Amino acid sequence: MIQWYTLALTSAFFSATAAILEKKILFKEKALSFSVTLALLNLIFAIPFFFFIDFSILTTSGLFVLFIKSILGALAFLCVMIGIKNLELSNALPLLVLTPGLVALGALIFLREFLGPLEILGMFLLLIGTYILQLKQNQKFLDPWKAFIKSKGHRYIVGALILFTITSILDKAILKNFKVPVNAFMGFQHLFLAIIFLSFIIFSGKTKQIKSPFKNSLKYIVLLSVITIIYRYTQILAVKSAPVALVLSLKRISVFFAVIIGGRLFREHNLLKKIIATAIMVTGAILVIVF
Question: Structural domain of residue 177, as residue ranges?
Fold first, then answer.
C-alpha cells in the first residue's frame, strides 16, 4: 500500500507542473473561459471513476455537501486563475502557503485551540515570508502591506486562501463523516465542477469566449487536464489516509518548485528573493502543522 506522504508528494509534483502550465495558458486566455474548458475536459477524463462507484452506499447528504464544496472549490480555482493571470507566478503562488496558518489561526479564534512555541514560530515565519515576498527596494516598513491590500491580483489570492481553508476541511469531512468513496468523490466532484463553471459563463454572458481556449490552447489544456486529475486523485487518497493539515503542508511544497521552475521559465523579477521568501513560508507552514 502506498504511504500517504508518497501520495502527498506526488500530488505536490503534479500540482507544481499544473501551475506552470496554467500560467503559460493564461498569457493568452481569459481566466473564466480557460476554467470552463479545463472543467469540461476534466469531466471527460473523470468518466472512468463512475464505473467503479458502488452507488448503493452513496447518500444524498454526502453528495449535497460535495456539491457545496465544489461550488466553493470552483470559486477558489477561479480566484487563483485570476490571481495568476494578473501577477507573476512567483508572486501569487507563495501566498497559498498561508493556508495552514489560516487553519491554525481559525482553530485558535473559534475553537480556543492554543498554539505552542513552534507553531507560533511557524506563524511568524509565514508573515516574514509574505513580507519579504512583497518587499521592493527602498520601500518603507508598511509599504509592502499597503501594496498587498490595494493589489487586485492579491485580493483574489486572499479570497482563494479563505475558500481553500474551508474546502480542505470539507474534503476530510466528506470522506470520513459522510463516507463518500474516493471514486465517487472524484467522479461527482468533476461533474459538479463542469456544471458550476458552465453556469458561471452562461450567467456572465460570455459564452463566446469559450471558443478561444479550444481553438488556441487545446493541446496544453488537455495535458493540464490529465495532470490535474492525477494531482487531485493522489491528494484525495492522501487525505483519506492522513490528517488533512499534514497532507496540505506537504502539498504546499509544490509552490516552492513552481516558483523556482516557473520563475526561471517565465523570466520573472527578483526570483532569488522570492525563492528565499517561499522557502521561509514553506518552513513556517510545516512548523504550524507538524508540531
Answer: 4-290
